[in-house]
Amino acid sequence: MQLWQRKHESRGRSIVAIRELPKLERRVRFPPPAPLPMNAIPDVQPFIDRFRALEALMAAENFYEDQRSAATIGREYCQIRELLESHGHYTSLVEVISDAEKILNDPNADGEMLLWAQEERDKALQRIEAAKFRVLSLMLPEDPSDSRNTVLEIRAGAGGDEAAIFAGDLCRMYLRFSELKGWTVEPISSHGAELGGFKEVILLISGEDVYRAIKFESGVHRVQRIPETEANGRVHTSTVTVAVLPEAEEVDVQVNPEDLEISICRASGAGGQHVNKTDSAVQLLHKPTGIIVYCADERSQQKNRSKAMKVLQARLLQQKRREEEEKYASTRRNQVGSGDRSERIRTYNFPQNRLTDHRIGLTLHNLPAIMEGDLSEVITALHAADYQRRIQALATKENKI
Length: 401
Prior knowledge:
Elements: H1 2-5, E1 8-10, E2 13-15, H2 45-58, H3 67-104, H4 111-139, E3 150-156, H5 161-181, E4 184-192, E5 198-206, H6 210-214, E6 219-225, E7 236-246, E8 260-265, E9 281-286, E10 291-295, H7 301-325, H8 329-332, E11 344-349, E12 354-357, E13 362-364, H9 367-371, H10 376-395
Helix pairs in contact: 2-3, 3-4, 4-10
């Protein structure tokens, strides 16, 4: 904790750990996508079958013996019921349009009937896109990791000292964003750089829907600006890699103690009453994967070991998810981004006051506010793009439920 108890200066600004702060609105509202082809609703029968199965489970005498299971089943039941009600509304609009068109194509229909049919058809056409979008959105499976706490890893890439300084700037940006969201940030480990910033910093962010909000931040962040050490005023390009990992639960990743090699050593640092005097730093090596996690942020060896295990489990879960996603290449093509840290996702151009997200072609000229944690417009646009692509994929039956 020593590095974080001292204020870390990055380009003249203090970086401190964020604790409990007032909660703000977190939900993002997405606009409907572009018009979808008619009859673009997948078969609803599997949802009907599941609804009936849930009804049978809920009718059992011992249903409420397991309160957690009952709550989960109850939520799923309500979600599917809402889907079926929305599908019924959509179907009724389709029937109105079909009946109206039969009348409009009937040579024997009188003028009053034709006028009525035209009005009913127009009203139904105005409402059917929203009804269709609602059905498709309810069919989309939720990411079970969205509500989880998140391990955020930031590492300096190409660019030397300037990359480390920008890593510190990004760390501060995410800390400020977490503050605005009312999340709690707990430092796991950090390695400062000589001229400021970080070579590496790892944070555990806890709160409501953390992973859902920032999961698209994974990748390479590129900065273009004139470093303070640049005498000739030339613009330099540096990179920082960001990894966003949902915190793993024990049921997700089982770590065999025999697969761990645990090393205990003295924490490195600038000195003080505790640093370099006790063996509190912990390094975990997961032998099957070669993943190494080091934590020396706490004075307690036990706390450092606990934090290191959280990071190790998160990385193992991410590896597991990546292996599963590689089996579904067609699905990944429909996502905003792969989330791989090797993917260049964003450019921060300071001379032009410009942020560009390359995945969705978004350009904003409000860089100072963004670096102060105002990421709402960027994150909303990323989620909207991903949401619409998933809807389109579902509508064309490329994304199977």
